[in-house]
Design brief:
The protein is built from ten helices and 17 strands. With 394 residues, the protein is an alpha/beta fold. The strands form three sheets. Strands 1, 2, 8, 9, 10, 11 and 17 form a seven-stranded mixed sheet that branches. Strands 6-5-13-14-15-12-16 form a seven-stranded mixed sheet, with helices on one face. The chain has a three-stranded antiparallel sheet with strand order 3-7-4. The protein starts with 5 loop residues before the first strand and ends in a 6-residue tail after the last helix.
Length: 394
């Protein structure tokens, strides 16, 4: 690659957000460089909704499982099954899934560059130079680009260096262990488990998600003094998974609130975890990351077409118009229901309600708030109120 080559866009980070942005822009004929570290896998349960599969053309072979039910487990051990009627939750392995997305971007013409991002400088003509260090090399390299999409994760260096306020966000720290799936009689390959117990997470939840031959067993917490590894060990011990072989261990911070600003107003825009688009309460991030990558790519395309950098701000505006209300509601849910085990017990009890189950899965699968049944929302509101006021027994 020549130092004089000028890319339309340099995408920093090859996860779902970055790979999607690179794919969309390369498909439009733009000259794209996709800079990514080798071998980095984010800790993730791997759940994706049918909406993602449709919108982003995900092939069936990437689905390790099709979950048809979720089991919610309360602090007292009460198990509530939430069957998914008329749909499913797809499960992917991030190691395979992310690489497939990167390969697809390359197939449309994006140039893959393996290296660790270091910084951005600009030459006398205002052209951006993205500096990175290739593995095993002592001297950094640089490539030139008109625009940069920072999709380099929750602790985005692109964001911290280039976008005001990008260093001010709240995180949940997630950790999981990928283990070999035990014999069929010891597990249900079509059901995920979500554990709401303060001992496993004081402010979030723990999970067991099936991935076919493997399983993701993990937890998360914003409490830096909480031992995530001990929690996962206790979860495995308590669910008969302590003897299963461990394939790999992964941990990383996960943001739970979109940044107030995604761009620098000039030539840099953020996407995915770097922009903070992980849903509160659920921690779901893959769909929102890929959508954020697509919207950021759209904004950059508009900038390239018109020369007007103000188009960069449209990505966040479009995202918040689509999903800002959902993030607000989920944030309130996490604040109220995850505070202590009494409330967690009540929350799991509410999940028995058929209206809650139906509206939850319809909203999750389609990524839209369900508006067709207002009386169901009214019923749920009064049931929630009764639990909050202790008028209903958990």
């Amino acid at each position: 690659m020549s130092e004089d080559a000028l890319f339309d866009v340099a995408v920093v980070g090859g996860g779902p957000a970055g790979a999607t942005a690179a794919h969309d822009l390369a498909r439009r004929g733009r000259k794209v460089a996709l800079i990514d570290k080798a071998g980095r896998i984010k800790p993730c349960g791997g759940a994706i909704p049918p909406r993602l599969i449709r919108d982003f053309g995900i092939p069936d072979h990437l689905l390790k499982a099709r979950v048809s039910s979720a089991r919610m487990i309360s602090p007292k051990g009460v198990a509530v099954d939430m069957p998914i009627k008329g749909g499913f939750v797809g499960m992917v392995d991030r190691c395979e899934f992310d690489e497939w997305l990167r390969c697809r971007a390359a197939a449309y013409g994006a140039m893959r560059v393996t290296g660790a991002y270091e910084r951005i400088t600009r030459d006398e003509n205002g052209i951006t130079r993205v500096h990175y260090r290739a593995k095993g090399e002592t001297e950094p390299r640089a490539l030139r680009a008109r625009f940069v999409i920072g999709a380099d994760g929750a602790l985005s260096q692109v964001g911290r260096q280039e976008v005001p306020g990008a260093d001010k966000t709240r995180f949940v720290f997630a950790y999981h262990e990928v283990i070999e799936t035990p014999p069929a009689e010891a597990s249900d390959p079509d059901r995920c488990e979500i554990h709401y117990r303060g001992a496993l997470s004081p402010d979030f939840y723990a999970w067991i998600f099936p991935h076919g031959d493997t399983m993701s067993v993990g937890t998360g917490s914003a409490n830096k003094g909480f031992s995530l590894k001990n929690s996962v060990r206790d979860l495995r011990d308590g669910t008969g998974l302590s003897d299963a072989a461990t394939v790999r261990r992964e941990g990383a911070p996960i943001p739970l609130k979109p940044l107030k600003r995604w761009d620098n107003g000039r030539d840099v825009i953020l996407a995915g975890d770097a922009a903070g688009v992980v849903a509160p309460a659920s921690g779901e991030g893959i769909y929102y990351a890929m959508l954020g990558g697509r919207l950021s790519a759209d904004s950059v395309e508009e900038c390239l077409r018109t020369g007007d950098a103000r188009a960069l701000s449209m990505a966040r505006k479009r995202f918040m118009k689509l999903h800002g209300r959902v993030f607000f509601i989920l944030g309130i849910m996490q604040y109220f229901w995850y505070r202590n085990d009494r409330l967690r017990e009540a929350f799991v009890n509410i999940c028995k309600d058929p209206d809650v189950q139906r509206l939850t899965w319809e909203a999750y699968m389609n990524k839209e708030l369900v508006r067709a049944d207002p009386m169901a929302h009214v019923r749920i509101f009064f049931k929630d109120l009764a639990h909050l006021l202790r008028l209903a027994s958990p």
